[in-house]
Design goal:
The complex is a heterodimer of chains A (about 240) and B (about 220). With about 240 residues, chain A is of the alpha/beta class. Chain A contains nine helices and ten strands. In chain A, about 40% of the residues lie in helices and about 25% in strands. In chain A, strands 6-7-8-3-9-10 form a six-stranded mixed beta sheet, with helices on both faces. In chain A, strands 2-1-4-5 form a four-stranded antiparallel beta sheet. Chain A is globular, with a radius of gyration of 18 Å. The termini of chain A are far apart. Chain B is built from eight helices and no strands. The longest helix of chain B has about 35 residues, at about 15-45. Helices cover about 75% and strands about 0% of the residues of chain B. Chain B has a single domain, classed as Orthogonal Bundle (MetI-like fold). Classes of the chains: A alpha/beta (about 240), B mainly alpha (about 220). The interface of A and B includes residues 52 and 95 of A.
């Protein structure tokens, strides 16, 4: 049963076409990593899944919610799709708990006690139950990113998008975030990640999607793709990554 | 020097000065609350999707910022009655201050809004928040915090600028000073006192605004 279905997605920035007709399917509970060089279109594709990038052509379908380029109101889609960003994007004037509670309050219109309980639960899930009242500036990068994950999870999305969520972190903080993602994957959360953490992708993902020049040119189980790349582009990319 | 200073003669007019100070404070408070309110609405409008709205607010801001306050005041008090719009002098004074501060604060607040990282807006959008919700809950607070010192200065400028309203006989501090010196013929003493009172008011206003800013906006970043 496919949860996310992208068909014929096209997107141009000015005269540059960054997505040249992408089709992709993600089943419920599946963990998919999109890899590729910068400029290959992977971030743009990810951002189009919750409508942060308007697509020029194609259809996005998430859990029965269809969006085409003519769609103005994207909120129904966004309630099904959570997103975690490279730069965390916590609201600096709100505490960790308030960051999580804001959308529960104004979007889901939950009552005060329910909001609080849901926020506490979400923060506990990422191991930050004790940081409810801390402001983002008082948290490490890794903690901020975990709050951002909790903020998304609290909305109970069907699928969580992660856009290079460890790229802005100091190396020693990467693991605390990845272990949260790993736990979500084990709990059956549907995840689509853009990542440069190849070892993590290999260990955790069910499916790897290799993008090149605005197209998906290879996809499949990570072991197969890494060990037996069938295109020279992927072979070169794997070689580059492993040389690091 | 033959002139003999005599500040004691001011005592007889103390109630007039007090009334003047109270009126200046009243005009400033009303002008600030309504003017900043217009500034927030104006800044939101300048960021809206509607081009006619953006242009209209832009025209208002440029019109007010490029004409003298005195002329704006005269237009409201002496000009509008020709259209049948009459109001007491205090109302004209408040209206002129609101219109004036509204334009300047629109520009100031817009600068704060422009400084909001795009990612925070995206985070709000991806949580399913609407544009107005994002503006109210995510953008506005930090934006106001960033521009609060600039806005505070503008409020002090408007407070001092309210002295111009003596020209339409609004009974604020400058009006009181003019009145007293025309009676006791002690312009030095009277304007010295008025100067001191304006200075005290300005310092006090800055202090109050600084405390208010700390309470309202000093969250997160500065609390670390």
């Amino acid at each position: 049963m496919s949860l996310v279905k992208l068909s014929g997605i096209r997107k141009s920035f000015g005269s540059v076409e960054v997505l040249k007709g992408v089709d992709m399917t993600v089943r419920e509970g599946e963990v998919v990593a999109m890899i590729g060089r910068s400029g290959s279109g992977k971030s743009t594709l990810l951002r189009s899944v919750n409508g942060l990038e308007r697509i020029d052509a194609g259809v996005i379908e998430v859990d029965g919610e269809c969006v085409d380029p003519g769609q103005i109101d994207l909120r129904a889609l966004r309630l099904k799709v959570g997103m975690v960003f490279q730069q965390f994007n916590l609201f600096p004037h709100l505490s960790a708990g308030e960051n999580v509670m804001l959308a529960l309050k104004v979007v889901k219109r939950m009552g005060k006690a329910d909001t609080r309980a849901a926020a506490e639960q979400a923060l506990a899930r990422v191991g930050l139950g004790h940081k409810f009242d801390a402001y983002p500036s008082q948290l490490s990068g890794g903690q901020q990113q975990r709050v951002a994950i909790a903020r998304s999870l609290a909305m109970q999305p069907k699928v969580l998008l992660c856009d290079e969520i460890t790229s802005a972190l100091d190396p020693e903080l990467v693991n605390e975030v990845l272990s949260v993602v790993r736990k979500l994957a084990e709990e059956g959360m549907t995840l689509i990640l853009v990542t440069h953490e190849m070892r993590f992708a290999r260990e955790v993902c069910d499916q790897l999607v290799f993008m090149h020049g605005g197209r998906i040119i290879e996809q499949g189980p990570p072991v197969a793709l890494f060990d037996r790349p069938s295109t020279p582009e992927l072979a070169q990319f794997v070689g580059m990554v492993e040389a690091r | 020097m033959a002139y003999r200073f005599d500040f004691t003669s001011l005592w007889d007019y103390a109630p007039v000065l007090v009334h003047g100070v109270a009126t200046t404070v009243g005009l400033t408070v009303a002008g600030t609350v309504l003017g900043v309110g217009i500034g927030i609405a104006g800044a939101a409008a300048r960021n809206s999707a509607s081009r006619p709205l953006r242009l209209a607010v832009g025209a208002y801001v440029e019109l007010i910022r490029n004409t003298p306050f005195l002329v704006q005041l005269f237009f409201i008090f002496f000009g509008l009655p020709s259209l049948g719009i009459r109001m007491p002098e205090w109302a004209a004074a408040v209206l002129a201050m609101v219109v004036n501060l509204g334009a300047y604060s629109t520009e100031i607040i817009r600068a704060g809004i422009d400084a909001t990282p795009k990612g925070q807006v995206e985070a709000g959008a991806s949580l399913g928040m609407t544009g107005p919700q994002i503006f109210r809950y995510i953008i506005l607070g930090p934006a106001m915090g960033k521009i609060w010192p600039a806005l505070s200065s503008q409020i002090v400028i408007v407070m001092l600028g309210s002295s111009v309203c003596s020209q339409i006989a609004a009974e604020e501090l400058s009006f009181a000073a003019n009145f007293i010196q025309s009676r006791n013929f002690r312009p030095f003493e009277v304007y010295f006192a008025a100067t001191a009172l304006y200075l005290a008011l300005a310092v006090l206003t800055r202090w109050i605004l600084a405390r208010l800013g700390d309470r309202l906006f000093l969250k997160g970043a500065a609390r670390a």
